[in-house]
Design brief:
The chain has one domain. By secondary structure, the chain is mainly alpha-helical. The protein is 64% helix and 0% strand. Helix 1 packs antiparallel against helix 3 (55-75) and helix 4 packs antiparallel against helix 5 (114-134). It is found in: Membrane. The chain crosses the membrane at residues 55-74, 81-99, 119-138. It holds the Pfam family DoxX. It comes from Pseudoclavibacter terrae.
C-alpha cells in the first residue's frame, strides 16, 4: 500500500499580493454587479455577434461568474491558487469580447474611438498577470497537482 503524505500547507502571500488580490476581488464584484444592473446594456455591446447565445443571457451569466470570482478572491484564500488560475482563465475567455468591440467599432464604457478600444486590449494581459501574481498561483502552481501525485488520493 502506498504511503500518503499530508498536503503541504499553502504558502503565505506577501501583504502587497494580498492587497492586490482583495482589490482585484472588489473590482470583479463591482463589475459583476454592473453586469447585472446599471451597465447591462454596455456589456451587451461587448458580446461578439458570433456567440450563439442571447447577449443578455451572456451578460447575466458572466456577471454572476464575476461576482462569484470576486468573492472567491476575497474570501477563499485557502484555494487561492485554483482561484487565481480560474480568474486568469476567465480574463482570457472574455478577451474576444474586447477584440470584437474593437473590430466592430462598438462604443461602450467611454470607449468611443478605435484608439481607445485598441489601447484597452493590452490591459487584459495585465489582468491575467495580476490574477496569477496576486494569488501566488504561478509561484505555487504545483499545489494544484499535489492531490494527483503518485501515492496520493483525493
Amino acid at each position: 500500500m502506498a504511503q500518503t503524505t499530508p498536503p503541504a500547507k499553502p504558502r503565505r502571500t506577501s501583504p502587497p499580493r494580498t492587497i492586490a488580490r482583495v482589490v482585484l476581488g472588489a473590482f470583479l464584484l463591482f463589475a459583476g454587479v454592473a453586469h447585472l444592473s446599471f451597465a447591462r446594456e454596455d456589456f451587451q455591446a461587448q458580446v461578439p455577434t458570433w456567440v450563439p447565445l442571447d447577449a443578455d443571457l451572456v451578460v447575466l451569466a458572466s456577471g454572476v461568474v464575476e461576482v462569484l470570482l470576486g468573492v472567491a478572491l476575497i474570501a477563499a484564500w485557502r484555494w487561492r491558487v485554483a482561484v487565481g488560475f480560474t480568474v486568469a482563465a476567465f480574463f482570457v475567455a472574455v478577451f474576444p469580447g474586447n477584440v470584437s468591440q474593437y473590430v466592430t467599432g462598438t462604443d461602450a464604457f467611454g470607449l468611443d474611438t478605435d484608439l481607445k478600444r485598441l489601447i484597452r486590449l493590452p490591459f487584459q494581459v495585465l489582468l491575467v498577470a495580476l490574477a496569477l501574481w496576486s494569488t501566488g498561483a504561478w509561484r505555487d502552481r504545483r499545489e494544484l497537482l499535489q492531490p494527483f501525485r503518485r501515492g496520493r488520493m483525493l
